């Protein structure tokens, strides 16, 4: 069999149609945008079309889409930009202990820069504590940020209830969302979400790596974080790869041409995977919520008494790529901070396996994965002192 890839939350396989759409901009249309000459005007026109394509499923305006070199830079531009632009109105920021590392590292940077940050807790399924959010708001609060779909658990935060809390505050609180795991997986309408800024990434939806976008609501002021020559965008001066942007736009077309079917396919695959794991392997626990409150592509389980790192390496030898815990937090074999924050112990955290699916996966791949996972789990448990002590 060809390699089975189920780590799509980290990156996904570029679609053939995406590679085809990129090719002209790598060969004959390699120009930068510009005025007065045909080559530059042609790229200007192409970029406007790409912005419209990406804005459409978000119910945004084309001029509210700013291309960046990825989701991480989009998060940085938004968070630092909002904080610096509005620091004269207050110095207090709110996020949660289960947010994506982009948000948490920016929060730490802002703390070191003189801002105050309140970190709200989450429940056992990864939903942030809305009572804590409401209680944390104070007159000097200027920014709340959240991760729409949790990158480890797949938990979809209750965005409507968050919006209501922020709207009920007695002053403007700017609202940033990381949609890296949400874009292309669940519906995102910026007018309903109520966000001021939102970061999205291309390579999670079968587009190339190295490109992303930041939605900035019309009229929202951001401080300038990067300085240089304006080529494509004011927020990220300098050059951006036009071919990558073309691929991004084509991937958006493919994802949203029948979005209901895209969601249904992912949900059916993930439901099937979970059912097969639970039917085949004893003493397995689902991490995060079941059903509609979980992103359709994410299944995270803890397999008791054995290390996820060992499972991951043994599956790799079988031609299967998966993740243990969070790919952004597993360095150094430390327990996953998300799982620990929602009340899991060290054993459950270390036994965590995350499977994130794409439209290129199939039930036959899942069957093979589960059969290998079952064999590996049985073998590792034979060697496990924790498992043998439990017996």
| Terminal-residue CA separation | 37 Å
CATH 2nd-level architecture of the largest domain: 3-Layer(aba) Sandwich
For the sheet with most strands, the description reads: 7 strands, mixed
Structural class, by secondary structure, is: alpha/beta
Level-1 CATH class name of the largest domain? Alpha Beta
Spell out the CATH superfamily of the largest domain: Type I PLP-dependent aspartate aminotransferase-like (Major domain)
Which fold does the CATH topology of the largest domain refer to? Aspartate Aminotransferase, domain 2
Helix content: 40-55%
- How many strand segments? 12
> Count of helices?
14
Strand content range = 5-15%
Helix and strand run: EHHEHEHEHEHEHEEHHEEHEHHEHH
Provide the residue-averaged pLDDT: 93
The spatial strand order of the largest sheet comes to 2-8-7-6-5-3-4
Rg value: 22 Å
Tertiary shape? globular
Count of separate structural domains: 2
Features of the shown structure:
391 residues; globular; single chain; Aspartate Aminotransferase, domain 2
